[in-house]
């Protein structure tokens, strides 16, 4: 379950409601099928988002952890996914340090602020390389990862999971049903079949 962080912050410059409202939504929807995880309410660190809030990367990292900490005690029986934020690779490493012992061994962790860099897979590789360099045990989830990024064998290797709305956008633009689960399945199958570039260097 996504928190809608990007659109919320873009529209409001932050979260207009407390974590209690999001927690209520999680607890409501967890009974509808099998909810694997609910993503924490993070603050993206792209330069465009910093301009929206008027804050700096360190502020967004701090706020991301504060929202995560506030959400945890309000949720039962659903995994709350922490999100690593930054823009430069070393900022993600610093955010890992800020989380401290909250990040247990093998945790499933989101990697934020990568969706706008799909056109440059090497930039995403650099971020993932930095994270794996200090915490190779973490299972990483990429937000908004598109087809171009999956041409990289390293990205495919280092991400345990990813989400994308590219399938829905394409269906809508081509006059098909943008909410049809079969569109999503075809997109996933396309990713599985596509060739990717292997790298000799990690």
Helix content: 40-55%
Model regions low in confidence, pLDDT < 50 over at least 5 residues: none
Cα shape: globular
The termini sit apart by 31 Å
Order of helix and strand elements from N to C terminus: HHEHHEEHEHEHEHH
Quote the beta fraction: 5-15%
What Rg do the Cα atoms give? 17 Å
Order of strands across the widest beta sheet?
3-4-5-6
- Let me know the largest β-sheet: 4 strands, parallel
Structure, explained:
With 202 residues, this protein is α/β, with parallel strands linked by helices. The chain has a domain at 1-81. The protein has helices at 5-12, 19-29, 47-53, 57-71, 89-99, 121-134, 153-158, 166-173, 181-193; strands at 38-39, 80-81, 83-84, 108-111, 139-142, 159-162. It has a 4-stranded parallel β-sheet with strand order 3-4-5-6. It has a two-stranded parallel ribbon with strand order 1-2. Helix 4 (57-71) packs parallel to helix 5 (89-99), helix 5 runs parallel beside helix 6 (121-134) and helix 8 crosses helix 9. It is globular. The two termini are 31 Å apart. Residues 1-174 form the DeoxyPurine in DNA protein A domain. InterPro entries: DpdA.
């Amino acid at each position: 379950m996504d928190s809608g962080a990007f659109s919320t912050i873009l529209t409001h410059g932050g979260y207009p409601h407390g974590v209690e409202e999001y927690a209520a939504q999680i607890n409501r929807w967890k009974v509808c099928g099998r909810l694997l995880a609910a993503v924490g309410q993070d603050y993206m660190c792209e330069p465009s988002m910093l301009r929206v809030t008027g804050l700096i990367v360190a502020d967004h990292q701090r706020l991301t952890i504060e929202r995560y900490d506030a959400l945890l005690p309000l949720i039962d029986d659903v995994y709350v996914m922490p999100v690593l934020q930054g823009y430069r690779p070393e900022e993600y490493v610093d955010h890992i340090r800020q989380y401290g012992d909250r990040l247990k061994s093998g945790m499933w962790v989101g990697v934020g602020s990568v969706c706008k860099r799909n056109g440059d897979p090497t930039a995403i590789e650099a971020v993932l390389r930095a994270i794996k360099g200090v915490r190779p045990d973490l299972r990483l989830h990429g937000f908004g990862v598109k087809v171009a990024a999956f041409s990289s064998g390293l990205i495919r290797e280092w991400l345990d999971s990813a989400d994308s709305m590219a399938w829905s956008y394409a269906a809508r633009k081509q006059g098909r049903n943008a909410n049809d689960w079969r569109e999503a399945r075809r997109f996933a199958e396309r990713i599985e079949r596509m060739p990717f570039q292997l790298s000799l260097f990690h």
